Every structure is written in C-alpha cells, then in structure tokens.
Amino acid sequence: MNIKTVWGIVRWFVLGGAVLVVLLMISKPQRPDAKVTPEDQQKFSQDFERKMQHLEQATEAHEHAAKEEFSPEEVNASMQDMAANAEQVMGPGAAEDAETRIIGINFVGDEAVGQFTVKRFGKDIYVTMSGHLTAKNGYANIELTSAKIGNLSVPVSLINPRLQERLAEPSQHEKLKLPDFVADLRVENGKLVIVEK
C-alpha cells in the first residue's frame, strides 16, 4: 500500500469522525428530569412557595438553621412559573427568543443536573451540566463535574471557564443572588436542601 492510499484512508476516517462529532453535538439528549405535567404544576409550585415562606418566617422568628428539602418537580414547577411570569412582562415569545433557555433540572445523589438550550446558527444546541451547588457570599455557586453538548461528553475544563465568565457578568450574577434569609444550599440524596440563617 502506497502513501497516497494510506493518506486517503486516514482522510476519510478523519472526515467521518468530524461528521460524527457534529451529529452528536447537535442531537437532542434525553431530558434530565421528568417533565411536570400541567395538572401537577400548581401543586408543586405551591409546595415550593410554602417551603420558602417557612424558611423566611423561621428567620424572622430567629429560629436558626431551619431547613427545607425541595424535590426536582417543585424546583422545575417554580422555574416554569418564573418563565411564565417573565413572558407576561416581556411579551409572548420572549422565552423562545432568549439566547439561553432552561429545559429542566434534576438532582442525582449530591449533584444538580441542568439542561439548557443555547441558540446558535438558528438551531437549539442542548447543553447538559452536572455539578455541586453551594452558597457563596449570598449567591448560588456551581462547581461543574461533567458536561455534554448534545450527546457528546466534553471536558469540564472546556466549559467551566466560559460558564464562570458568563455567571460573573453583572446581569447574570444578580440572577444568582439568594434571598437574604438563605444561609446555604446543597443537593443531598436527590433533593435540594436550603438552610436559613
């Protein structure tokens, strides 16, 4: 076999690999959570609000370190409510036009798993990230442990610097501000745990 034939074979393998990578990146991955049905939406959202009110009242009554556990369904229902409220304020279609949109969140063991879409070239690119949640100086913080673009696993070192830059932007950073009565948050045994001051 001559060098020209070997180079031709290598070139086809490289091209095939590049096509496979692109297909994996633009493919739609499995959703990380069970979608909240419209029938359950209000119940889960009310449960979320009730627990947050309990934490706020505990702070006002000087009960220190009260905590509440939130299921992924309660958190997703609350996020759906916030998205619906934003759409009412900004107008119909605002959620679809947003550059980044949250698809859903799940809690697995001691990690949060979030899935988002990012609009690129007129197409939704799915990004799934896992990490440890913490509270730092009154803001939510995430330490990434894994990341995927579409169905392609990517090293955290490629995603994390861009994510941290984005989260440090003033407009994004303020979205991570925790209510004054929250001292800590973390994921334990598949639930979000919020501890009041």
In short:
By secondary structure, the protein is α+β, with helices and mostly antiparallel strands. It contains six helices and eight strands.
Explain this structure.
This protein has 197 residues and is of the alpha+beta class. It has one domain. It contains six helices and eight strands. It has helices at 3-26, 38-60, 72-90, 94-97, 156-168, 170-173, and strands at 67-70, 100-108, 111-120, 123-136, 139-149, 152-154, 182-188, 191-196. A five-stranded antiparallel β-sheet has the order 2-3-4-5-6. Strands 1-8-7 form a three-stranded antiparallel β-sheet. Helix 2 packs across helix 3. The longest helix has 24 residues, at 3-26. It starts with a helix and ends with a strand. The model has no long low-confidence stretch (mean pLDDT 84).
Number of helices: 6
Runs in which pLDDT lies below 50 for 5 or more consecutive residues are none
Class computed from helices, strands and strand pairing:
alpha+beta
Number of domains: 1
Biggest sheet descriptor: 5 strands, antiparallel
Shape: elongated
